[in-house]
Amino acid sequence: MGEASFLTDDEKRDATGSEPLPASSLTTLLAKYSPDQPRVPAGNSDGGQWTSGGEGGSPVGDEEGDHELLPENAQPVQGHHYTPRELFEGYDLRPEVRRFFEDDVTGKLLGGRHTWTREHKVYNEAVIEKFEAFLAEKSVSSKELTLDQAKEFSDKLVKESNDPRIRDFNFKIFIREIAFQLLMRALRRKR
After folding, report:
1. Is residue 151, in this structure, part of any structural domain at all?
2. Which residues are within 8 A (CB) of 27 and not within 5 positions of it... i.e. 6 or more apart?
3. Is residue 123 part of a domain?
4. Each residue of 130-166: pLDDT tens digit?
């Protein structure tokens, strides 16, 4: 995407689902980087992320999103859970199934903090809806769900979902990560 000289920076950002920057350019992005900017201390689950200031402050971007929708038990994660936390903490599951869902994440998201938005809420609701339909189809309760069935659910009904509420949200995260990698590659070339 970064190599597409026929697109403006704002068109590239639009293609990846990002908002345009006030003066969108590589120079503007570079100007925002400051190695002296405070970071969340190591040991914290958000450790190493830039903060808006102050000792152990909130990561940059925390002001984004719809925090009034954030569940009370929400905790920062190193990536996007394919199966929402409210599902694997809210349903009676076998310990190995719960661990699978908890560990089934994209991995650390480098392209920006994973924040809570209305789109995320819709994603969670859709996955839970699919989960309940999956249990009914298999004629099992959540407690009876096997690890193999949990993997099947995650692979077929979440990661490979055709439901736009699920597919589009996962795709947006994927595209954002690719765009970030391309940007970092372009920055390294400029040095």
Report:
1. yes
2. none
3. yes
4. 999 999 999 999 999 999 999 999 999 999 999 999 9
Render 65-134 in DSSP notation, one character per residue.
S-GGGS-TT----SS-BSS-HHHHHHS---HHHHHHHHH-B-----SS-----HHHHHHHHHHHHHHHHH
**What pTM, to 2 d.p., does this model score?**
0.57
| Residue 135 falls inside a structural domain | yes
Residue 116 lies in domain: 78-191
What residues contact 104, with CB distance under 8 A and at least 6 apart?
81, 82, 83, 154
Q: Is 125 part of any domain?
A: yes
Contacts of 142 (CB under 8 A, 6+ apart): 91, 92, 93, 135
In this structure, what token pair is assigned to residue 63?
């002001």
> Residue 60: phi, psi to the nearest 5?
-55, 135
